[in-house]
Amino acid sequence: MTDPYGGFPQYEPPAGGSAPTPSNPDGNPYGNPYGNPYSSPHGNPYGSPYRASTPSDGISIAALICSLTCCAAPVGIGLGIAGIVRTKDGQRSGRWAAVTGLVLGIFMMVAGVAAGIGLAWYGTNTVVIADARAGDCIDVSDIDIWKAECDEPHDAEVIHAQQFDDTLVDQYVDMDVSELCARLTETSGYTDDVRRGSYELSTWVDSWDVEQPEPGDSLICVAEPLDGEKLDAPLPRDASPVQTGTETALYDLQVGDCFNEPDGLGEDDLIGFVRVVPCNQGHELELTSVVLVPAPEPGYPGDAVIEERAEECLSRFAAYLDIPYDDSRYESTYYSPTEESWDHGDRTIFCMVADPDGEDLTKSLKGAAR
Length: 370
Fold this sequence. Notes:
The chain is α+β, with helices and mostly antiparallel strands. The chain has helices at 58-67, 73-86, 95-125, 166-174, 177-184, 192-196, 303-310, 312-321, 339-342, and strands spanning 137-140, 145-147, 156-163, 199-206, 218-225, 247-249, 258-260, 273-277, 285-292, 331-335, 348-354. Helix 2 (73-86) runs antiparallel to helix 3 (95-125).
């Protein structure tokens, strides 16, 4: 058949057969030599421009945070190891945080251990002013006091130690340091050459304000050779030094000494000597502190003044035993000047601790907290 209008003749299939199968699987009779530019192997004709993000691993982040502090560094190490395991297959992100946390944790833990050892060494080798006693040999620097052996070269020696009370605060503020220490050591047994001769006397104070300390703060007096030479032995003391197990003058006692009263001593008898014994042997008394009685006017100030000053023994008791007096099972007692001894220059109250039942003590009660 022909087309009366001209143009292309109509397609007629060959006789006895069917129409040929198109060579183009897309059904495009004109073919497409470039294929389908929009096809997608995933079945999405538009493709997928985004990929799902990998979640961050919280354990790894926690490892990094913990490792930044020395106290939690061990935790950071453990979390860092766990974080590395959890992020190895790439299903979680944050491996960098786990590795960093592990490394920092190890570093901080080592630094913390080193700092602890250093602080322990420092605390063992330095002198705490509140714990110092007369007779301690020391080395001194601008900011610290270091323990030293008295038979080895050392800078100085502690010749007096006590806590401040109201009177001592006033004396400390008003008096020259050398004169104050010389006066405080009048009953210490050190020779006049130590107190007012060839040695420089200075003070160390444990207080927030060393210019204006408060009652309860601690003070020590220190003697150093004026020529700057090292000491290699304890400083000299007067004759009649304290001797264990022998009769000893009361004024030669040092805080912390344990002793017994003379046999047959009456309640109203004056006491001038005691018998010092080792604190791990049976003893009646232990000296906890010494309190000076101010003498603004000549003459005996009266029993009321003496008793008021003796109240200071209770706060000294609490500091020495490390427990409030009312909570302790022990009692405080004291020796004080009498009108007769006052005329002979006695200005000292000796504060002591004793068993309330009169039983012997068998060890030092310093820091006993009971």
